[in-house]
Specification:
- The complex is a heterodimer of chains A (about 675) and B (about 500).
- Helices cover about 5% and strands about 55% of the residues of chain A.
- With about 675 residues, chain A is mainly beta.
- In chain A, a hairpin with a 2-residue loop joins β13 and β14.
- Chain A has a 22-stranded antiparallel beta barrel. Chain A has a five-stranded mixed sheet with strand order 1-6-7-4-5, with no helix packed on it.
- Chain A contains three helices and 37 strands.
- Chain B is mainly beta and about 500 residues long.
- Chain B has two helices and 41 strands.
- Chain B is elongated, with a radius of gyration of 26 Å.
- Chain B starts with 5 loop residues before the first helix and ends with a strand.
- The chains are: A mainly beta (about 675), B mainly beta (about 500).
- Chains A and B meet through β26 of A and β3 and β7 of B.
Chain lengths: ~675, ~500
C-alpha cells in the first residue's frame, strides 16, 4: 500500500475514534442532565483520585502492590530505591543517584517489564528496557506494580509485568509546598508544588531539581584483584549528575462526568560516566531530555449502556546524547545522538454492572528512532514502528463477590519500517519492511474465601517483540537480524492474601501473602558474538522461571509494625549453547529478603530495614559469582505545623557492592530534607 | 655389605629410572593453555589441555581463572600468562602444574586511558616485551619479577608509527634470534565503521640494547613498510626456512577495494617482502587468521561472514594449492586472534568457536585427529614447556653418564656440571643424593662431605657450574649406588621432581 495512503487511513482511524467519543459524549451531555441508572456501578472501591482508565484494584486478580507517596515523601530516593523493596522486584544500578537503573520482575529482564507513566509507555522500541533513573519522584503520587499478568488497562504488556507510575492529580482547594534537601556526596534537592482547584478548572505544577557529585568512596584495585599492593581508596570520578523535572497539568470538569486534562512532563538530565579505572581525566557524559505531552478526555456514563470512557493522545520526544569524544570509556572517540519520537492514541471504555465489568482498550502508536554519529554526521539507524493493540477483558462476579473470573484477550500488531540496518560489514543494508501480529489470551480467578482471605490465580500468554537494536544492529559492532521472532512466554501464578484489622488489644493489624509463580519463555533472544567480536541477536534459548513470594506484616499497639518479605526465584536457561544450558539467568538473585520495622508516635515516624540478596551470577556462563548484597537503612520523619523533616541513613554497614561487575555503588550515606506545606 | 642379586638389581634400576627418568631435563610436559570466552562475552576463562594424550585422550581442565571476556594468553617455560585487556589492563602469571595459583599479577597501565595489552613476546625467562595496543610504547618487562616495581624494565617507543588515532596499533610480535619484530597495524577505528587504514610496518629491535634497527625498508621510518596488505593481525617466524610471515585482514568485506588483506613473507635478514596471497580472490573471504607449518604447508582462515569462516590449507612457497579443510568450513574460527597454533609434535590446533572446542589437525593429511571441548569459545592457544633454554644438570661417574660397573678396589670419581639456561640467577634448591646399600646420603658443599639423610644440598640461585668433583673414593662396599644431581625451583625443602631438572647415574660395585 502506498505509504501516504496508509498513513492517511491510520490518521483517520485515530482521529475518528477521538471525534466519536468526544462528539457523542458532548451530544448526550446536551440532551439531558444525568440521572444514574440504578444498575450502573460507578463506584470502584477506590480512593477519590480514581479516574476512568485506572485499574480497579479491588477486582483485579493480578498480584500487585501499590507504593503510595507517603512511603517516599521527603526522601532522597529515586524510583529504583522505592520499588526494589517490593517482593519479586530486583533493581540493578550502575552507580550512585542518577546512574542507569534497570528493573527485573520475577526473573524477567528489563526488556520484558513495561513501565508506564500516566498511561504512556516509557519503553522504547530501540530496546534496553527503561532506565528508572530517568523518572523523578517529586511529582509521583503512587507506583503500582503488577507482577506477571496485568490488567487490560495497559494496552501493551510483556512477560515480566507492569510498573505503573501515576503522577499527582489535582485535588480540591489550594495547596502548595516547597522542599529542600541535602546529603552525602554534595547531593541537593529542591522541589516546589502548587495545586489549585477552585471550581471546575484546576491546575497543578510540580518542579524539582536534583544534583549530586556522586564522589563516593570506592576501592580501586587497579584491575589487579590478586595484587593488593596497588589498591587504593579514592573518590569516584566523573559520576556527577543533575536533573530537572517539571510537570504541568491543567484540567477542566465540563460536568461531573466529563473532564479534560492537558499535561506536559519535561525531564532533563546530565550524567557523567566514569571510566573503568576511575580516571580523573574522564569527561564522558550521557545527556537525556524527554518531553511528554498528553491530552486526555474522560467521559463517564455515556450511551444507554452507561459506558465510562477515556481517550488519550500523547506525544513523546526523547533525545539522548552520548559523548565520549575523548575515548575514555569506549574504544575510540564517540559522540552519538539518539532521537525517539512517538505519537500514541488510546481509547478505553468500560461497562459496569453489579455482576460484570467489561473493559475495552484500543491503542495505536507510531514510534520513530534515529541514531546519528555526530563525529561523522553519519546516520546509521532510521527506524519506524507502528503498533496497534486491542484488548478486551470481562470480570464476571458470582455470589456476593465470592468469586470473580476475569478472562481477557489482547491483540497486538507491529509494522516495522527500517531505512537502514547495520550488516556484518557495518554498512547500510537498505530498506526493510515487516509486520507481525500476536494474540495474547489471559484468565484470572479471584476467590474471596472469607472476609479476610483471598485466593487468586492467573494464566496468560505474553510476547516481547524484538527491539530495533536487536533487529537492525548498531554501527557494525552489532549485526542486525531482521528474521528475529518475538519472545513468547506463558505466565502462571497462584497465591493467597490474608489481611485483618482489630480494634483494641495489642494486635492492630495482620496481613500475610504467598504466591507461587511460573514462567516459561520460548525464543528467548540471546546476543552472541562471533570470532571477530561482532554481536548478533538470535532466538536460540528458552528459559523457565519459577519462584515464591511471601510477605508477613504485623502491627501492634497501633504504633509498631514489622514487615518481613521473602522472594525465591529459580531461573533456568535452556540453551543449545553448552556453556549456558541449565545455568541461572545472569543478573538475577536466587534469594532475597527484607525485614522492616516502623514506629509511629503522633507526628514521629522511625524506621529501620535490612535487605539481603544472594546467589546471583554476573554472567550467563555462571562463572562470576556476585557476592551477597546486604543493606541496612534507617530514618525518621517528623511533622509539626506545616513542616516536615526527614532524615535518612542508607547502607549503614558501608557495603561496597556492585550490581554490575566493575560499577561500584555508594557506601554509607546520609540525607536530610525539610518541606513546608501550605 | 649387601649383595644384590641380578634380578633385584633390575627392579632397583627400573625403580630408579622411574623416579629420575632417562632425560636430563625431567620437567613439566608440554601443555596447551586456551583463552576462551562465553558466547555472549559476559565472561571468559582458561582451559588447560595436555598436548600429548594421556591414556589415549586429552582430558581438559576447563573454566579456570574465570574473569572478563577481553582476554588472551601467552606462555613460556613452565608458566602461562593471562593477559586481560579492557576493564583490567593486567597480566597474571600462573605455573602450569598449579594453573589456578597466582605467582604474580601486575597492572599494564601507564598514563594512557587504557593500555590494552595485546601480547607478551619472550626473549628469555627474565626479559619479555609487552605489546600495548592502546599506547605508543611497548614495555620491556621481567616475567620473573617479584614486585610491580621490578616488572617494568623499560620502554620501546613506537610513537613515530602512530596513525590518525594517535597509536601505532602494536598487535603482534616475534623473536628471531636476538631481534624483536613488532607488527604495527596502523588502523584508526575511532570513527568505526568509518575505518581509516594506514600502511602497516614491522619495527625491528636489537634486544641486547633495546634499540631500533634501521632496516632501510621504511622510507622515513626505520621499520619495514608492508604496502601490499593492510589491517595486519599476526606475524610468525618459521625457523625451518628462516622466514617471517605477516597476515593482514584488510577490510573484512573482501569484496571491496577499501583495503587489501592477505599474507606476505618477510626475509628477516634482507627485510625484503613478498606477497604470498591476497584476498582479491576466489571467494575465500578476508584472511583473518594464519598459521605456517612448513615451507610448503600453511593454513589461513577465510572470513566470509558472521560465524562463516573456513580453514584453508595452502602452499606458502607459492600461495597456491588452496583447499578447504573438511570439517572446518563455515564455522566461527578467527578474527580477534589468528585461531591457528602449532604444537611441539607439529599438530595444528584450531579454535572452533562454533562448537566450543579446539580441533587438532594433522597437517600431513588435513584430518582432525582429536577434538577437545573447552566449554567456552576458544580464542587463542599458547603452549607451555617450551623454554628455549632449560637448565641442564649433568652427573658423571668416572666420566660415564649412566651406568658403571666397578670392582671394590677401583676408584670412583663423581663430577657435576650445570648449565642454568634461562634460569640463571633464579632461586633454586640443589640436590645431590646417593642411595647406597647403607642408606641415603646427601652432599654438603660447605665442607665437601656427605652426610646421612635425604635433604637438599643447597638453596641458592642457579649459576653456571663447570666440572666439579664431589666424590673421589675407593674400596666402597659391594652393592648398587644410585646418584642423582638436580635443581628444582620450589624452595620448600622437598624434592619437586615435576618442577626441576635432574640427571642420575648408577654404580654397581662387585
Amino acid at each position: 500500500m502506498n505509504k501516504r495512503v496508509d498513513f492517511t487511513i491510520r490518521a483517520i482511524f485515530i482521529v475518528g475514534i477521538l471525534l466519536l467519543s468526544f462528539s457523542r459524549g458532548l451530544a448526550e451531555e446536551k440532551k439531558s442532565d444525568y440521572t444514574l441508572d440504578p444498575v450502573v456501578v460507578t463506584a470502584h472501591g477506590q480512593d477519590k483520585d480514581y479516574q476512568t482508565g485506572d485499574v480497579d484494584t479491588s477486582t483485579t486478580p493480578s498480584f500487585f502492590s501499590t507504593i503510595t507517596r507517603d512511603e517516599f515523601e521527603g526522601k532522597m530516593e529515586n524510583l529504583s530505591d522505592v520499588i526494589e523493596k517490593q517482593a519479586g522486584i530486583q533493581v540493578r544500578q550502575s552507580g550512585g543517584l542518577g546512574s542507569f537503573s534497570s528493573v527485573s520482575m520475577r526473573g524477567a529482564s528489563g526488556d520484558q517489564v513495561m513501565v508506564f507513566m500516566d498511561g504512556v509507555l516509557l519503553n522504547d522500541a530501540s530496546g534496553g528496557g527503561v532506565d528508572l533513573s530517568n523518572i523523578a519522584l517529586a511529582d509521583v503520587d503512587s507506583v503500582e506494580i503488577y507482577r506477571g499478568t496485568s490488567p487490560i488497562n495497559f494496552g501493551r504488556t510483556s512477560i515480566g509485568g507492569v510498573v505503573n507510575i501515576q503522577t499527582r492529580r489535582s485535588t480540591k482547594g489550594f495547596n502548595a509546598n516547597v522542599l529542600a534537601g541535602y546529603g552525602s556526596f554534595d547531593t541537593r534537592k529542591y522541589s516546589a508544588f502548587i495545586n489549585h482547584k477552585p471550581g471546575k478548572w484546576d491546575y497543578l505544577i510540580s518542579a524539582d531539581y536534583m544534583e549530586s557529585d556522586n564522589d563516593f568512596e570506592i576501592d580501586n584495585d587497579n584491575g589487579t584483584p590478586d595484587n593488593p599492593s596497588d589498591d587504593r581508596t579514592e573518590d569516584r570520578n566523573n559520576a556527577q549528575f543533575d536533573q530537572t523535572n517539571i510537570l504541568a497539568r491543567f484540567g477542566y470538569d465540563f460536568t461531573p462526568n466529563a473532564r479534560v486534562d492537558i499535561t506536559n512532563k519535561w525531564f532533563s538530565k546530565q550524567q557523567g560516566i566514569p571510566s573503568w579505572n576511575n580516571s580523573p581525566l574522564t569527561e564522558t557524559n550521557f545527556d537525556t531530555e524527554r518531553n511528554i505531552s498528553t491530552l486526555k478526555f474522560t467521559l463517564d456514563d455515556v450511551t444507554p449502556l452507561h459506558l465510562n470512557t477515556s481517550t488519550q493522545v500523547d506525544y513523546l520526544e526523547k533525545q539522548e546524547i552520548y559523548d565520549d569524544s575523548g575515548g575514555h570509556v569506549g574504544l575510540g572517540s564517540q559522540r552519538s545522538r539518539y532521537d525517539t519520537s512517538r505519537y500514541s492514541a488510546r481509547f478505553f471504555a468500560e461497562w459496569l454492572t453489579d455482576r460484570q465489568s467489561l473493559r475495552l482498550t484500543l491503542d495505536a502508536q507510531r514510534e520513530a528512532y534515529e541514531a546519528e554519529n555526530e563525529l561523522s554526521d553519519e546516520q546509521t539507524n532510521d527506524s519506524e514502528r507502528w503498533t496497534y493493540s486491542a484488548g478486551i477483558q470481562d470480570t464476571v462476579t458470582f455470589g456476593e463477590d465470592f468469586l470473580s473470573i476475569t478472562p481477557a484477550l489482547r491483540y497486538e500488531h507491529y509494522d516495522d519500517d527500517f531505512s537502514s540496518e547495520s550488516e556484518s560489514w557495518g554498512q547500510e543494508a537498505g530498506e526493510y519492511d515487516q509486520a507481525e501480529a500476536h494474540w495474547m489470551p489471559q484468565i484470572g480467578v479471584k476467590l474471596n474465601a472469607t472476609d479476610h482471605l483471598t485466593l487468586k490465580s492467573n494464566l496468560a500468554r505474553y510476547v516481547r517483540e524484538p527491539s530495533f537494536y536487536e533487529l537492525f544492529g548498531d554501527r557494525g559492532v552489532f549485526v542486525g537480524n531482521p528474521e528475529l521472532d518475538a519472545e513468547d512466554g506463558v505466565n502462571f501464578d497462584i497465591g493467597l492474601e490474608y489481611g485483618r484489622r482489630w480494634g483494641g488489644g495489642w494486635l492492630s493489624r495482620f496481613s500475610a501473602g504467598a504466591v507461587y509463580f511460573y514462567s516459561a519463555i520460548d525464543d528467548l533472544i540471546t546476543r552472541t558474538y562471533d570470532a571477530r567480536g561482532i554481536g548478533k541477536a538470535d532466538n536460540i534459548s528458552e528459559a523457565v522461571i519459577k519462584g515464591v513470594e511471601a510477605r508477613v506484616s504485623v502491627e501492634v499497639f497501633d504504633h509498631f509494625s514489622i514487615l518481613g518479605q521473602y522472594t525465591w526465584q529459580d531461573t533456568e536457561n535452556e540453551s543449545p549453547l553448552k556453556s549456558f544450558d541449565g545455568n541461572q539467568l545472569p543478573g538475577k538473585f536466587k534469594d532475597s529478603w527484607l525485614v522492616r520495622t516502623e514506629f509511629n508516635w503522633q507526628s514521629l515516624k522511625l524506621y529501620a530495614e535490612y535487605i539481603n540478596e544472594s546467589d546471583m551470577y554476573y554472567d550467563t556462563a555462571n562463572l562470576l559469582d556476585a557476592p551477597t548484597k546486604t543493606e541496612v537503612n534507617c530514618g525518621l520523619s517528623y511533622i509539626w505545623d506545616n513542616w516536615r523533616l526527614s532524615i535518612e541513613a542508607d547502607n549503614l554497614d558501608d557495603e561496597k557492592y556492585e550490581d554490575f561487575r566493575g560499577y561500584p555503588l555508594p557506601g554509607r550515606s546520609y540525607f536530610v530534607s525539610l518541606k513546608y506545606s501550605l | 655389605m649387601t649383595n644384590f642379586r641380578p634380578k633385584a638389581m633390575i627392579y632397583f634400576l627400573l625403580t630408579v629410572l622411574l623416579i629420575c627418568g632417562f632425560s636430563a631435563a625431567a620437567h613439566a610436559k608440554q601443555m596447551a593453555v586456551v583463552a576462551a570466552v562465553a558466547p555472549d562475552y559476559t565472561s571468559g576463562a582458561l582451559s588447560v589441555i595436555p598436548v600429548d594424550p594421556v591414556d589415549g585422550s586429552r582430558t581438559p581442565q576447563n573454566e579456570l581463572n574465570e574473569t572478563g571476556s577481553d582476554i588472551t594468553v601467552a606462555a613460556y617455560g613452565d608458566y602461562f600468562y593471562l593477559i586481560e585487556r579492557t576493564g583490567a589492563n593486567s597480566i597474571t602469571k600462573y605455573p602450569i602444574d598449579a594453573p589456578e595459583t597466582v605467582v604474580w599479577q601486575y597492572s599494564t597501565q601507564g598514563d594512557e586511558s587504557g593500555s590494552n595489552p595485546y601480547d607478551l613476546i619472550f626473549a628469555n625467562s627474565k626479559k619479555a616485551y609487552l605489546l600495548r595496543y592502546g599506547s605508543t610504547k611497548a614495555w620491556i618487562v621481567n616475567p620473573s619479577a617479584g614486585t610491580q616495581a621490578g616488572f617494568k624494565l623499560g620502554e620501546l617507543d613506537l610513537g613515530a608509527y602512530a596513525d590518525t588515532d594517535g597509536t601505532p596499533g602494536m598487535v603482534s610480535g616475534t623473536m628471531v634470534g636476538d631481534r624483536l619484530f613488532v607488527l604495527l597495524q596502523r588502523v584508526d577505528y575511532s570513527q568505526y565503521p568509518d575505518t581509516e587504514y594506514s600502511t602497516p610496518y614491522v619495527a625491528v629491535f636489537d634486544t641486547a640494547t633495546n634499540t631500533e634497527i634501521d632496516t632501510g625498508r621504511g622510507g622515513a621510518m626505520k621499520g619495514i613498510e608492508i604496502p601490499e596488505i593492510t589491517n595486519t593481525g599476526f606475524i610468525q617466524y618459521l625457523e625451518a626456512n628462516d622466514t617471517l610471515y605477516v597476515q593482514g585482514v584488510g577490510d573484512y568485506d573482501a569484496s571491496t577495494d577499501a583495503a587489501k588483506g592477505g599474507i606476505v613473507s618477510l626475509d628477516p635478514d634482507t627485510y625484503e617482502t613478498r606477497v604470498i596471497l591476497t584476498d582479491e580472490n576466489d571467494g575465500y573471504g578476508a584472511v583473518s587468521g594464519m598459521g605456517v607449518v612448513s615451507e610448503t604447508k600453511g593454513y589461513f582462515i577465510g572470513y566470509a561472514g558472521w560465524g562463516d569462516n573456513t580453514l584453508y590449507s595452502f602452499d606458502p612457497s607459492c600461495g597456491c594449492s588452496i583447499k578447504a579443510v573438511p570439517g572446518l568450513e563455515n564455522k566461527g574460527l578467527s578474527g580477534m586472534e589468528k585461531g591457528i597454533y602449532s604444537d611441539k609434535n607439529g599438530l595444528v590446533w584450531i579454535c572452533n568457536q562454533t562448537d566450543a572446542r579446539v580441533d587438532i589437525l594433522d597437517p600431513t593429511d588435513d584430518t582432525i585427529v582429536d577434538s577437545v571441548s573447552t566449554s567456552l569459545n576458544p580464542l587463542k592457544v599458547a603452549f607451555t614447556g617450551s623454554a628455549s633454554s632449560p637448565a641442564v644438570p649433568d652427573i658423571k661417574v668416572n666420566g660415564s653418564d649412566r651406568f658403571l660397573g666397578l670392582k671394590s678396589t677401583d676408584n670412583l670419581s663423581v663430577t657435576l656440571e650445570l648449565a642454568p639456561g634461562d634460569y640463571a640467577g633464579d632461586p633454586a634448591e640443589w640436590w645431590l643424593l646417593a642411595d647406597t646399600p647403607f642408606g641415603w646420603f646427601h652432599y654438603q658443599p660447605g665442607d665437601n662431605t656427605w652426610a646421612r639423610g635425604f635433604a637438599p644440598s643447597l638453596q641458592s640461585p642457579l649459576l653456571n657450574l663447570g666440572e666439579f668433583e664431589v666424590l673421589n673414593i675407593s674400596k666402597l662396599p659391594a652393592g648398587a649406588y644410585w646418584l642423582c644431581f638436580g635443581v628444582d625451583m620450589v624452595m620448600n625443602g622437598q624434592l619437586d621432581m615435576d618442577q626441576g631438572y635432574y640427571d642420575s647415574a648408577i654404580v654397581y660395585i662387585e
